[in-house]
Every structure is written in structure tokens, then in C-alpha cells.
Amino acid sequence: MPDITPVPDFEDAEKVQQYIQDRRVIGYDPLVQPALLRHEIVASANAQKTVAAARYAAARIVAGQDDRLLVILGPCSIHSTSLAMEYAALLKAKLAEWPNLFIIMRAYLCDRLINDPEINGSFKINKGLRLARQLLCDITDLGIPVGQELLDTISPQYLADLLSWAAIGARTTESQLHRELASGVSFPIGFKNGTDASVSIAIDAMQSAGAPHAFMGVTEQGLAAIVKTRGNLDTHVILRGGNRGPNYASEHVKAAVKAIQSKNRDFASLMVDCSHGNSQKNFLNQPRVLEDVCAQLAAGERNITGVMVESNINEGRQDVPSDGPHLLKHGVSITDACVNWETTVAMMDALNRAVGQRRQALIDAGFSRPPGYLRSAPDA
Asked: Which of 358, 312, 360 is closest to 336 using CA atoms?
């Protein structure tokens, strides 16, 4: 059996130094400064307006002050900028048909486009960051807001000015680093329930993110710094199911609302993830999850303020061919399986109708609108 930890040579100072420092690190490559990349790839005036208007609208929706539904819609992850733009164009052409929905394109980048843009293990992260920033500039310039998952505490410095919403995943919701990060970002954040389907971790994360923090971080100039935040109250829970099963049904929603209200939140805001544990990792179940959500909305459920759907141009998923990414099928995910565009349109049609039915049901029930309920945002 090989020695996992070799005995150091205490008589050789140089070998001792090698033993105690970076013994398992292969090397360090330079990383472009966030400020330099932002200077190099600048968001257009239209892109900035898209971001600002979407942040305002999303914050009002999760606060219960706008009765539209926030929809995070798009590929599981993006591995091709051209395919992402093709999807964005499809989405833009349909937005006017869904006035009851406020759609933010899912633009999850870090695990694929940023870390390994050539999909060959070369990990040209600087190239990936440039591709990612340019892509988000292009999508938002179309008038399509974007959102993504915050996987680490460094990459947001390169892209955060282009995001209108973000998620903290089930495996990182309990992470203090991610809670601190969420407390300082300038857009709404959704915390996913834990992998066991419990919402308590997500609720605790919201409480933490709403408070001020001071922590170690990185500036736009790439320097280590002490970051001080005010706290972020534009937060909500994402029900994504877990290893105990789905948690999107009415009884799960009501239980989550009760748990959130017990923490003295002004409004219990829930987003339902139609994929992951709720679909039991079968993309064909996403429409079934959405059908149940639509029924709850049509019955007047106010606390469901959003849904998340993993959608792509073509359905399913694929592995990267051993002969190279040039053999990938067009518009098919290389991570989690997604529903195709035709199914997506049918799902959004149903969701748009359900939100309209909810509005009418609440009017019929004499619902009293909270202060500021009428929309006043640009483009809202």
C-alpha cells in the first residue's frame, strides 16, 4: 500500500517547506481582474435598463406586491453561447403572449461555460469569464433578464451587475459563506430547501442573509478585502424536493408558508422548482409538477410567487462525445435533462392562464391589495 503521507526530511529546509506548503497544489494561473473585464466588456444602456427593471419587478413579486408570477426558465446549464442566444431569441418572441408571467432566463454558467469553455478539460477560465460576460451582455441587451446560481464567492464580481435574480443551491444553502454573499448582492435571492426536502435550512438562510455581515472577500480590483453588507430582504424559499420525495403539493406549500410566517416575515414567498427532487429527476415529470402548481394558483394560492423550469431547444440530455464537443446534438443539455421548446410553450401558456385565474379568484374573494400593489416599474 503506498504511503499517502510521506515522512518529511526534517534535515532539508527546502523539502520541509515543500512539505508544509501547497503540497497538493499543481500550480497557480493568473486570473483576470473583475474591474478589467467589466471595462473590457461593457453592458449597453439597454442591458442596464433591463437589469434594473427586472430587479425591481422580481423584488416586488417575491414581496407579494405584484401578482405576476416570477418564472426562471432556461437550460440546466449553458455550454454554447450561440445556442443560448438561439434560446433567448425564442423566448423573446413569446414574451408578449404571457403578460401574467415575469420571465427571467436561466443562465447557469459556472460549471460549464466558465470553468471549461472548450469542454476538453483545459479549464481556460479567463476565456470562460469573457464568454460568459459577453453572453449576459448580449442577452440582456435583447431585453431578456438573466439569473443564475451563485456557486462561489469570486465569480459574482465578474457578472453580478448583469444578474436580476440568483439562487443558492440545496447543497450550499447551509453554507455561511453563501449566506454572507447573499446578504450583499443587489438582486433578489432564492434559497433552495435542503437535500432532505426540509425548508428549515432555507428559512434560516433567509434570516441570516437579511442581517448585516462582515466577511473576507475580493474587490473588483482583485484584492482581498473585508466586505461589509447591509443585509438582503429580497429573499424567498425555493421548494425543489429532496431525497424524501417531492414537496410541491398544496400540503407542502401550506406547511412551508406556516414555517416562514413563524419567523415574522411580512410575506411568505415560495418558488416551486419543477425539476430536481420534485420531478424525481425525470424531466418528463416537469409538466406534471407544473400542472399541480397551476391548480393551486387557479384556486387562489398567493404564496406561490414563482416557478423554475429546466427547458432547452430540444429535450433530454447527452454526454460529451469522446471524439469531442463538435459531435454534440443541437440544443440538448449536457447536464440535467430538460423539456423541449414546444413543451415549454405549452407549460407557459397554462401557467399564464392559471395566474389570470388566481387574480380573478382573489378579486371574487374580496382580496385587499397591500400598499404599493399597483405596478409602477418601467416595463412592468
From this structure: 312
Asked if residue 232 lies in contact with residue 189, where contact means CB atoms within 8 angstroms, the answer is: yes
Query: Looking at the predicted structure, is the pLDDT value of residue 2 above 80?
Result: no
Dihedral, CA atoms, 186, 190, 196, 197, nearest 10 degrees? 160
pLDDT digits (tens, 9 = 90+) for 166-186: 999 999 999 999 999 999 999
Place of cell 429532496: 242
CB atoms within 10 A of CB 367: 15
The per-residue pLDDT for range 60-72, each reduced to its tens digit, is 999 999 999 999 9
- How far apart, in whole angstroms, are the C-alpha atoms of residue 336 and residue 277? 12
Q: Could you tell me the CA-to-CA distances from 349 to 39, 91, 154, 249 in Å, in that order? A: 40, 13, 38, 21
Question: pLDDT digit string (tens) for 122-166?
Answer: 999 999 999 999 999 999 999 999 999 999 999 999 999 999 999
Reference 283, options 316, 244, 327; nearest CA is: 316
Q: Which residue has the cell 471549461?
A: 116
